[in-house]
Amino acid sequence: MSENKVVLSVRDLSVHYLTQRGALKAVSHASFDLHKGETLALMGESGCGKSTLNLALMRLLPGNARVPNGAIVYTRRDGSTIDVLKMNQDRLRRFRWSECAMVFQAALNSLNPVLRVRDMFYDTARAHGETNHHKVRRRALELFRKVRLDPERVFNAYPHELSGGMRQRVLIALGLLLDPQIVILDEPTTAVDILTQRTIIDVLLSIKDELNFSIIFISHDLSVAAEMADTVGTMYAGEIVELGPVNDMFYRPRHAYTLGLLEAIPRLSAGAEELTSIPGSPPDLVEPPSGCKFHIRCPFATDICAKETPPMEVVGDGHSAACWHADQVYARALQFTGAES
Amino acid sequence: MEGTPAHRLYDAIKRVVGSYAFRVVVQGILTLWAVTTFTFVLIRQMPGNPIQIKIDQLMDQRQLSYDDALKSAAGLYDFDPDEPLIQQYVKYIGKLARGDLGKSILSAGTPVADQIRRYLPWTLFSVGSGLLISFTLGVLLGMSMAYWRGGLLDNTMTVVASIMYGVPDFVIALLLLLVAGVQLELFKVGDVLGGISQDVEAGFNVPYITSLVQHAGLPVLTYVWTTVGGWILTMKSSTISTLGEDYITVAKARGLPERRIVLAYVGRNAMLPLITRLAISIGFVVGGSVIIEFIFQYPGLGRLLYTAINGRDYTTMQGVFLVISAAVVVSNILADLVFGLLDPRVRVGGQK
What we know:
- The complex is a heterodimer of chains A (341) and B (352).
- Chain A is of the alpha/beta class and 341 residues long.
- Chain A is built from twelve helices and 13 strands.
- In chain A, the strands form two sheets. An eight-stranded mixed sheet of chain A has the order 7-8-9-3-10-11-13-12, with helices on both faces. In chain A, strands 1, 2, 4, 5 and 6 form a five-stranded antiparallel sheet that branches.
- The model of chain A has no long low-confidence stretch (mean pLDDT 87).
- Chain B is flat, with a radius of gyration of 26 Å.
- The longest helix of chain B is centred in the middle third of the chain and has 38 residues, at 206-243.
- Chain B has 352 residues and is mainly alpha-helical.
- Classes of the chains: A alpha/beta (341), B mainly alpha (352).
- The interface between A and B is medium-sized, with 29 and 23 residues.
């Protein structure tokens, strides 16, 4: 991670879905900064709001979603800033993909089945003003080589002629076509086998070094997050509850939920008996619990947790957490990970 | 390399037999043969035969005795009802194989092929344009309804389309004729019945074309009225499921203009399920609509079939049924090919 300029600054962003039962608070008051060249990984259980947050960043939310408050400030290459939430339709259309691209979870279904891969590349380029097919083709083939695909064959293929891992890499290449500053990767490795997963991560690491874009990365897989990320954020019930540098997060967590996630993954150094899972399930987001939303499932919980919402406090260099018992969590974590303070 | 002539011949035969075109043609011929045989037997199981029907008519109209009627009826037609079925069948198939549909029994001496040639264009024109209008309208409306789902257009048209879909065509035809024509006198009934007015000269001129459109108007309207609901509802549900696909969200994320998304991403994928239905409909265009053509006295194949059935004109019936089934078979083959063009996943032809 480099300490240079911020490309995306999210402040106090909330997203609600209108449902029959009332507003479902999928994301509440999320704030974070994404620097140039930084990889931010968001982790958390299914339904914690990771994907909603990412869709909100590109304003791709479904029709029943509302953004009651927040700002998404994007810094262009020339240094000027703009709030994504205030763009008009045409501006937004041009912002998408050329500044911020997204590789979706369901790569198998992300490509139009009736068009050739090349037509999707031409479409994308044309939508952003590049009509020269030769140039697009040259750039696409170059990207295919970078993501380790057979360029000529894939360029002229239909999506159904490619395997899942190949389609995933086609999407990554498509995402990089317009040289965006930010690429959002929504669980890019969940739908593929372990070997393909390895290839995709290697590809991502190498092209990221080469092209120097920023990544927002969503994954259930903590080991992938640990490998890819510079910064890690933990999301619980629509809130970012802890955010910090990757080593701090994995070895010196300050939030009970982060610790719970870490304890749930098997480690080579530990015996199977030390694996614990977090009891219970994520709370109802239409009527969220009072205080800290995690207190019902939290082993550290005391009276204050049910009454008052813990504030986000700085606990280290670039590391902040919202937990009343950050110190106890920290002590337990040191015991568990064996790391030194 | 095995290059003996026998081997090469064997390979060539294998290639031809295994090819898609060959399979399709053989399948088509077999289907037609089965339909022909089936209708041949079936129509002869209907009560009465051409001679019997004519005898009844003669006895009724001219008050002849049965024997007299039998004598004059038998003299009218070149048809022997006592000939064994299998003999008739062999004769018929033999002629058919040489491309001869035989001669009409009722209009003695007129080849069935000539009759079909005379009536077919009318049906193709009226039902064909009806189908074209209905399909286009249905696709456009269905897609718009899916786009603005829950809006005014969607809510009203869903009800209207279901009602239109549910009312049988002859009811609509009679309503048009009796209410709009006879009671409200919106048009003169005599002006719209039949295929064309008597006094206009055939050719590419304004009065002729006006008259053509005027007479086809009501049958086309009835056809569109009763079929458009089906297209609307199918297209709507198909568009809704396409809109939920990930590649639509991705297309938006890629910043594609709305027009491109509607045409190449939503429209093309949503149309796929309708192609098969369209092919079947095209096949049935040829048969026309028997009841509609009868009600409007429209000189199409449907009315020819109606008259033929009433008079037990076996050869004409067989001819018309053959043409209808051939149309269905051919349009299905075409649908397969078109479907392959539109959807690369089911592209036929073997290679890849």
